[in-house]
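Field: COMPLEX_INPUT
Field: COMPONENT_COUNT = two
Field: RESIDUE_TOTAL = 631
Field: MODE = joint
Values follow.
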Amino acid sequence: MRTLRLSLLGVAVAGLVLPAAFSDAPAEAPAGFDNLTNGFTADQLAFDTDRGIFEEVETIDDGLGPVYNAQSCAECHQNPVTGAISQITEVRAGHFDGVNFVDHPGGSLINDRAIDASIQERVLGGNEVRTFRTSLNTLGDGFVEAIDSNTLVAIANGQPSGMRGQFIEVPVLEANGLVRGGRFGWKNQHASLLSFSADAYLNEMGFTSPLQPTENTSNGNSTAAFDTVPDPDNDGADVEAFARFMRSTKAPPRDTALAATADAQAGASLFNQVGCNLCHVRSITTAPAGTVINRGAFTVPAALGNKVIHPFGDFLLHNVGTGDGIVQNGGQSTRNKVRTAPLWGVRSRGRLMHDGETLNRNEAILRHAGEATGVINNYRNLTTNQKNQLITFLNSL
Amino acid sequence: MRTARAAGVLLAVAVIALAFAARRGREGAAELEPHPPRPAAVSPPPLAVKLPPPTPGEEEYGLRRAFGETVHPAAGSSRGLVGDFNGDGAEDVAVPVSPAAGRLEELNDGLANWRVQDAREDPTAERGLPPNGRSAVTVQPEDLLLAVVHGYGVRGWRDERARQCYLVRHATGPPFEARPRTELLRYVRRLPNEPRLMGDVILVSAGRTPGFVYWTGARYSWHPLPSRAHPIAP
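Field: COMPLEX_OUTPUT
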């Protein structure tokens, strides 16, 4: 009888303990501005090699241009470590015909540089919609890519009706254009890091690759006469290295010393109390390891799967009164919407909002309107001390 | 006794197998097609109804809601103007104001609920960033400012939620008239550095140079009018 009781007790304990042991309790994603791999790449040497390609300064002989914005990825994604942000902006332009946004001739991106002065792009008359776009952080983007699209939909559905974010689906280039929930870029114009890399390599540096084989024009005019390197400029290896590098980066870390202060902790509570967290979502868990994403093109590895990240963003589009009037992959309904800026790492940024035209935290908060009106009015009702606490909290991110 | 022990072992094995199965079941699964999301939020609807012109009392109430007691309508100045100055579809109000006595510190507080701007300065063009928490442009006692309250929803600036507001230097003066964006577009398209007009504008001359104040998307700015645009001035 005693043995039977012991056996049953053992089974009961096993029943309680084993599921917990084998269940995938989400783990915190590694964070750090330290140039160390998050474990996605086999080792640190592989990470450093990919980082080197991300930092490589390209020349005309390599395929740079004919029109471009920068000579290396790290030129715009560098502060405080490779892959992060910079103060560099790009220009987008077009025309609003009263109903629809119409791309500038050659596309809404106006490249700031060219390998020959005669093909320098500039904003042409009649294209009154113009905006600057600041360079975005790419650190931790492997975790963002590993978020299940349904998680983003669930976030949207959990937001109050007047503030519900817009979820859009955009083509995954490496999956023959099949669509997935967008999450990268100011307009959520990409869903995969390979697609994003190929796009940026072409549009920011002028490098064609198998996923983006056609050179850009100069204000709509062919640049073929200046293109000395046969297309594709790159066989795709660089694009894969860029994606691998971003997938290997750690998430932007908190300033733990500042975050531990009483003011920052009070500010963290105020952040929720005011309602900032409705869109600047604190925590998201990535899909389990083994989940097939990017429409079959990528399987979430253990290093990225089932990880808790703290992006302070929802990766959804909102109209907060700052919309830039530009349409990319999301259709005309997204014209005046931008992706909620993920606030992780925002302490490293001096120029704020999508255009970098706002120079301090309070002004950035007050610039929100539209869907954010109620939340910002809550902020307006705070005392000066409380506003300082909230800003201290922001400065700890 | 042996049977009981065997049953216990079997049960334990079954629990372990189930735990494994539960874990393995998630691996290799494809990301599911997202369920169609509910419709996205609709922005405040564009001006569909003609709102009545503002009364002085409404203007003062709107100013007080946004700026408290820090400003008051400027003596001897024009009445407020209405229009969709930021182009979001809701009616805004712009009123010339003066700083209230003894309120300068509050007006210039870096954490105030309004932003102080100068229509003839581009803060981002400065080489250095303004000191933390301080507005780059400050209100002076003798300033004549344009107070703008952005509207919200169909009631525009009269809505209790309409509290996004600006105090703009160098944005008042004759002829001080609101003009629809569409009317100005044909003039500004001739300008070499065509400003982006997001909303309606306010005609304001700088000395003898006719021009207009407009919303850039981030601030209020003044721009000269081309000479052939003079006919639109009274």
